[in-house]
């Protein structure tokens, strides 16, 4: 097959990469050996060197072995960004177990579904999340819940300051901590008391399952995408080749400083922060949540060079830098995903930093990055970019995925490469539907309609999937609709996404109310949903309609609803 996109690659980027047959944590082991005193992690000023991180991972792995965790066992992690998250992630992998990442703000019912589905035997959770897991534990396979006090990762002076009887300290303490029953195991105590895992303990191999990352795929029903060590290593290696970080280091350049503002439980944040960063020997500056003031304060203390982000983050930081005179010139590049990067946002970021802002594309099933704009003058705002090294793309007829369409024609995007997953956890039928065999390769169906030009640049035209992307998070209309249908007085409902400013899209609920129903407002709808849905999935706009448009077979036409909502604004 011809790869026209190679001519548009940035200088020095290879067409293909060699994926080493190793477990994901091998990069950390090398880093501890080659530069043990280099700072690997920075959490609000609390620093961990590569040598210290490797030692903590070895101890945490020993603690997991004492808890009975072995090869193939699933271990749930539900933590905000913090040092404990990194340690737990690599410790689980070191003992040959499988990480199952969860959003720590999920409700008990959302966590229950995923815990039951994965069969996780241990759950390592933020204290607040531990309470939710304990609520449903008896309906899952979880034997042990381990609570994590993330304030333990703070530097000593900040930990002491949390106990001060002042409003600011009290608010910070309450945002980090929660009261957990006395019998629940404590993460930091377990790790401190454990012996490092024995060097003779088997190390996983490349094809071993490393991660279950839950995604809605094309149906909206959460299912675990199975990603191997090789998949994750491949995407980290591809990212390193794309950015040229290791080439710069080989030429004597200083190590990168990566800002971890994206949540690690999200596929985008997991790869670019947890795996890519350690592979290139960078320092990861972590933020438990995105906050402009915190980022600017960290920038004064540890200037960043690389910011993986979603577009609203770049927009807010660029605006704040302009208003406050903050210096962001250390950032060489920012890579955005999960939602389109407006040209105006890219221009604003490049203006205040002097670096580049580019858009990339991927999905959980591709670990996640498969396409990106080149880090060069060849980048094209509004385009997703070019296939990554060792990545192939194919555009096919939406109704016949075996028929390739001509260059420049609309069609569904298929992706093939070493970062492509092996299928969905215990869902053979849906796994089979996700793949197409053609030209001697296995291709994963993305569900996105694109146009690829003669230079190989990919532009998204439409979504086959009806998911809503708000603030970089995926919301599946059917899940929100299921809860709203149970609300008293609601006869019918359609949930759609409409343009929502810096959110990308906002969630809108169109309700058909019963004739004798009491009036409802947006606040009532959000209150009804908040016990069962993540905050980003709550409707931000409410529309009361007489009826919903349906197809001849009775299916609600969400696209028509969306058009009507937009037309009425």
TrEMBL record:
Residue ranges annotated for the AMP-binding enzyme C-terminal domain, each copy included: 480-555
Originating species: Sanguibacter suaedae
Highest taxon above the source species: Bacteria
Protein's recorded name: AMP-binding protein
Residue intervals of the AMP-dependent synthetase/ligase domain: 30-425
GO molecular function: ligase activity, forming carbon-sulfur bonds
